[in-house]
Each structure stands twice: as C-alpha cells, then as structure tokens.
C-alpha cells in the first residue's frame, strides 16, 4: 500500500488528465480528503463512525472501520476461549480456535452496514446512536463457513422454521425502555437457510490480521447481505433451535413493521436495503462554478448487486448515470463517480444519488416510517455552494 506522503506527492504532481484516465494510469483522484480519525458517537460502550467524506478505496483499513458496540468489550483470552455448538444437533461441540482454524478457510471482502446508519437524518428524530453516513465499511474477512461448523455438529432438525442463534460474550442490562429482563448477552439468530449459505462466515481475521477486540476477537460472524447486527462479535455459542428465536435483539430492538393483510406486524431486520451515499462533495462544500467537479461515493445492497447509480444536481428534477468504478463484487459496496459540469450561476445546489440493484430495487425518495429507526436508505440530499 502506498505511503500517504507518496500518495499526496503523486497527487500534487498530477498533470491535468481526465479523472477516468488518471485512474486507468494508476493515479489517485485529486480530491482525496485526509483521514483524521474515527468520530466518537459514544465513548462507552465504544461507538465510532468512519468519516464518510474520507472514503477513498474499496477495502478500508481496520483502523478506519466503524465500531458498533452495545456493551463493554468483553475480556477474552483466546487461549481459554471455546465455541460451543448445541441445541438441535446430533453431536454438541466445543471447538478451540486452533480446531476452527484447521477447517477449510476462505478470505473474502464483505461490506457491513449498521442498521442505524444514517439515523441522524430521520425526522422526527429516532432514538439510538445518531450515525451520519459512516456506520458502514468494507473489509476482508478470513474464517470458516458457518455451514462447515454446523455440519460437524450435525443439525438434527429438518424443520423449515429452524434457526441458529449466535451468542456473543458481551452482556449487560438494558435499563431504558424497552428494558431487558436483567443482564442479557448480545444474541441474534439466522434462519437455517441463510446460516447454510457458503458466504456466511465465522471469522478470526480482518484485513489479514487477527480480529481486534473492538471487532470481535477472537471470533465473530460475518453475515454478508444482512445488516451488521447479524454479524455477532465475540462469539461463544451457537444454538440450533427448531422454532424462530424471539430474543430481545430481534423483537424489541432491530425490528420493523410490515403490513400483513393490512395489519402492522413486527419483523426482525435482516437484508440490507439498496443505497447510494455521496462521500464528496460534502454538505456545504464550495464547488467552483464552470468547472468539472467529481461527485463520488459508494453504493451497496443486500442479496443483489449494484446495477446503476444515478445522480441529480438539481434537487431530484433530472437524473444522470454515474460511472460504476471497478468490477462488481457480491456483498461489497461499489464505488462510483459522476463528473459534474458545474453551472455558471452561483448559488446553492442540491445533489442526490440513488442506486438500483440487479433485482430492480431502487432507493426510495421518501422515508418509510414503518422501518422505525433502521434501514435508513431513502435518498439523502447534499446541499453545496457553487461559487
Ligand atoms: N456483536 C456483539 N456481540 N455485540 C454487539 O454489540 N453489534 C452488532 C454487530 N455484532 C454487536 C455485535 C452491530 S449492531 C453491528 S453494526 C456490527 O456488529 C458492527 O461490527 P463492527 O463493530 O466490527 O463494525
């Protein structure tokens, strides 16, 4: 990876090449904003946001990756740690990290997005951490498939309703309404169909190094295509259940309303919704008139792939296609850019981006209040000043 100073030096020395040609020539775009640290949204438990305006690459280094913790980081000695596998299984297991590492492993990039990412843009205000755009990141994860571990234990139920509960070592009592029944662990379940998909991993490494305590050391789940709450950190136990798990974290929390026969019912959050976010220009940025200015961001979705990103520079009246950068990688964000020919007329302009995925799902213009404080994926305007 180039050193940041070399990066700046080469950026400063750039000839006036068109942006796409610059990238083809291996040169960085000229508008890179330096990373000045994660933003503290809560000090304890640690909740840290990636400053999205500094987005500049496909894989984020670990120190730039957001952190979402509900409780204090548990102290775990990997040498004493074991993963228990129990419930509706033929052979309950206790696996050490070394035993897990001996199973066939894989490394793959996956984008995680917190279900509350973008909550600060909700009106009326929703309770929960006030994330802006940066409770999202793409990293490379190394681990074993959850399916391989389930196969070793032998799932003993054929029920379609079967689930796998993933439990973390962290715990605490939720004292604000809706209160928990005393201290509880962070725990979420996956339907057995998703749990068996080869992309669902139990990971011990992030970006080529052992997981850090903040990111779930020694072992965490990585559930591609689902909001981040499913990717349980500090895993200690997998429990196979015959019927859906109704734990606190997927009924009273991380749930949304759907309408069934006209009746609102709560459903547990799962798949990531299609979304594009603008990294630059940032809100309030001054953009030169009569120039070509790069609008840059990332787009991602759940089980599909990003097929299109459109940009509007007139508050949503007209839209033009952005260029999707690099190849599409399933379960990862896709970087995009749009070269804006800025107007002669000075003044405020409202930029917007909207994504469509391979299943034809397009980001909505308006917020659906049934989603409560989660899955914030409606189009978010960015007002800039042309001067
Ligand atoms: N796992 C445990 N055990 N405890 C947690 O608080 N937070 C979840 C998930 N896994 C959480 C957890 C949420 S809401 C998100 S968005 C992701 O972890 C964030 O992962 P990260 O902190 O590595 O970015």
Summarize this, please?
The chain is mostly beta strands. The chain is built from 5 helices and 24 strands.
How would you explain this protein's 3D organization?
It is a single chain. The chain has a five-stranded mixed beta sheet. Strands 6, 7, 10, 11 and 12 form a five-stranded antiparallel beta sheet that branches. Helices cover 8% and strands 36% of the residues. The chain is mainly β and 387 residues long. It is built from five helices and 24 strands. Mean pLDDT is 93; it is low at 1-19. A hairpin with a 4-residue loop joins strand 1 and strand 2.
SSE map:
Blueprint: H1 4-12, H2 19-24, E1 39-42, E2 47-49, E3 67-68, E4 83-87, E5 93-95, H3 97-101, E6 105-113, E7 136-145, H4 146-153, E8 163-173, E9 183-191, H5 192-195, E10 201-206, E11 209-210, E12 220-222, E13 235-241, E14 255-260, E15 263-268, E16 275-280, E17 286-287, E18 292-300, E19 306-312, E20 320-321, E21 323-324, E22 334-341, E23 347-357, E24 382-386
Parallel strand pairs: 4-13, 17-24
Antiparallel strand pairs: 1-2, 2-3, 4-5, 6-7, 7-10, 8-9, 8-13, 10-11, 10-12, 14-15, 16-18, 18-22, 19-20, 19-23, 21-22, 23-24
The protein binds ligand MTE.
